[in-house]
Write a structure and sequence with these properties.
By secondary structure, this protein is α/β, with parallel strands linked by helices. 37% of the residues lie in helices and 23% in strands. The protein has seven helices and seven strands. It has a seven-stranded mixed β-sheet, with helices on both faces. Helix 3 links the parallel strand 1 and strand 2. Helix 5 packs across helix 7. The longest helix is centred in the first third of the chain and has 20 residues. The radius of gyration is 17 Å and the shape is globular. It starts with 8 loop residues before the first helix and ends in a 9-residue tail after the last strand.
């Protein structure tokens, strides 16, 4: 499901037929998934939400490493492929701006190559912070183009297809994360081919800041 002004499901339902091609995984998704797994290797192995899970490649790998995983996507096509991959993961169709989970339900939230499609990224960050327990970790990968003009070109192309699309820069992401209650602890560029120089993905690790108790008189 999608919010008004959000991405159209047909694009992702169609892409689900190509998402699992080996060359696509090796070139686009696997380097980022490997980096996310490395972050969580010494971190939380409890309940993990894979937000924008696609066909469930990362969620499946997380589950095999001992996490209790919920995979969330708004595309029926993506989730159909994910369910066929792993019946032991809980797959949920939902909008990133209105997550159907209780507050503090997860020890970690991960999102790879999905955040730029969220029509209201500030609202998505607030939802991510809401479903994370205090101290929980958010691990994000998103492209940060070397040339700002490349981002503008991609956004213009997406508008032609009636799709939201935005790659936030470091300052914008940090500002929105802080307002949502997430503190960025680490960022690093990831190497992948093609696009290593012009379209490098960036790994961001943020933590849910503890909720301060109100002072009583």
């Amino acid at each position: 499901m999608s919010s008004a002004g959000g991405p159209q499901q047909w694009l992702f339902d169609s892409w689900s037929h190509f998402y699992d091609l080996e060359w696509v995984q090796r070139a686009v998704y696997r380097p980022e998934q490997d980096a996310v797994l490395a972050v969580l290797e010494s971190g939380p192995r409890g309940r993990v939400l894979d937000l924008g899970c696609g066909t469930g490649q990362l969620a499946h790998r997380l589950r095999r490493r001992g996490a209790r995983v919920v995979g969330c996507d708004f595309s029926r096509g993506m989730l159909g492929a994910a369910r066929a991959r792993d019946r032991r993961v809980a797959w949920v169709q939902a909008d990133a701006l209105h997550l159907p989970f209780a507050a503090a339900a997860f020890d970690a939230v991960v999102s790879t190559q999905a955040f730029h499609w969220f029509p209201d990224q500030a609202a998505a960050l607030r939802e991510i912070a809401r479903v994370l327990r205090p101290g929980g970790v958010f691990v994000l990968t998103v492209v940060r183009p070397a040339l700002t003009s490349l981002g503008w070109i991609m956004e213009a192309g997406a508008r032609v297809l009636s799709q939201p699309f935005h790659w936030p820069d470091a300052a914008e992401l940090a500002r929105q994360a802080a307002r949502a209650g997430l503190r960025i602890e680490h960022e690093e560029r990831l190497f992948r081919l093609p696009g290593a120089l012009l379209l490098p993905p960036v790994l961001t690790v943020a933590r849910r800041t503890p909720v301060r108790a109100r002072r009583t008189a």
